[in-house]
């Protein structure tokens, strides 16, 4: 018999409805809690028949069944934080309010009234019952529409979001996060209002309708972080970043718009070791083939991004780059995350237009290389630094984003290589890109052969 090795984790509780489609409700809450390393428990308020296209029907559980679940969880588990989702009726809200008076842990209330599809999830007469519940609440997370219902303030910008948040503070809630996903604009602004301060968290809007479960996911992410002991503002900041990535890399499931990807951080973290190994395998092929002909004066680097990479820290590359030696090419040091700057920033910028690009390498560019590229008949893109606006020239990071946009925006198919013709003080380069490491290596070696033949 083996010796057990128990895994002790913080516990969180979700009090919400069930989504048979899996993208929202307790299904989203429990998945999000698991993604944050928290053990999730639940008290189901209602059962819905829904999918990515909408809600077909819903059934509210008897109050005694909700009470039994709440008692069972709180009597046994050391709950670190709880959240509410779909509460459906006045009786349910009043029951949760009664139990919340005895909670000695933070409570996050998402005043769910309407599903993303537009289907109503709360009876109209129950809207005002939320006021007593908010008096027992650590954080309320209404979207713009819900904030308007609760305060009669139409949320259209940062100022009205602050006003709605301040109005809700009068109910006794400790803090209010007025979510900006329903407010039109290129930027999503979530406004956190407390008695002491107002802070806005901004993220570029993702161009997708696949936001089913986004409110549940944000609320449960905050709850999980609170259960782990994070301060409220830190928990909100981390959770808004979590949701932005979960929406961008959404689950393409069902015949509707899909659902947010609650497991993005776990899968991204799990891919780190493999990504580093893949970069190393490409480097080994370059060393074996001796690609000296393609190594630029600034050195060559191979960069690999994790599947859901959003920052340089999530890209693996050769520390110190690959350089020419008397015996061929050699990496200066090993592969580590965050080791590349120039190529990594270009790859991340390119992923804004071609999200499945994950690998890139920078190579020398001159007349011989240009002739070889033409001979290979690859799809080629390029950008001219001489055309970039003066404000872009201030930082290399801005140049990489501008260059990727010039080269990739509006193309029907992604290029194999992107030419940067350089400028005074900036060496001309060509960056080869690919969705997988084998293709990147094959393309680079094909270019090397064409140049040397």
Structure explained in plain terms:
- The protein has 453 residues and is of the alpha/beta class.
- It folds into two domains: 11-269, Ribokinase (UDP-N-acetylmuramoyl-L-alanine:D-glutamate ligase, 3-Layer(aba) Sandwich), CATH 3.40.1190; 271-452, Class II aldolase/adducin N-terminal domain (L-fuculose-1-phosphate Aldolase, 3-Layer(aba) Sandwich), CATH 3.40.225.10.
- The protein is built from 14 helices and 18 strands.
- A nine-stranded mixed beta sheet has the order 3-2-1-4-5-6-7-8-9, with helices on both faces.
- The chain is elongated, with a radius of gyration of 26 Å.
How are the secondary structure elements laid out?
Blueprint: E1 11-19, H1 25-35, E2 39-51, E3 54-60, H2 63-76, E4 79-84, H3 90-100, E5 107-109, H4 130-134, E6 139-140, H5 144-151, H6 158-169, E7 175-178, E8 187-194, E9 198-204, H7 214-227, H8 232-248, H9 264-270, H10 272-289, E10 302-305, E11 315-318, E12 322-325, E13 328-331, E14 335-337, H11 342-351, E15 359-364, H12 367-376, E16 380-383, H13 396-408, E17 417-420, E18 429-434, H14 437-452
Parallel strand pairs: 1-2, 1-4, 4-5, 5-6, 6-7, 16-17
Antiparallel strand pairs: 2-3, 7-8, 8-9, 10-11, 10-15, 11-14, 12-13, 15-18, 17-18
Helix pairs in contact: 1-7, 2-3, 5-6, 7-8, 10-14, 11-13, 12-14
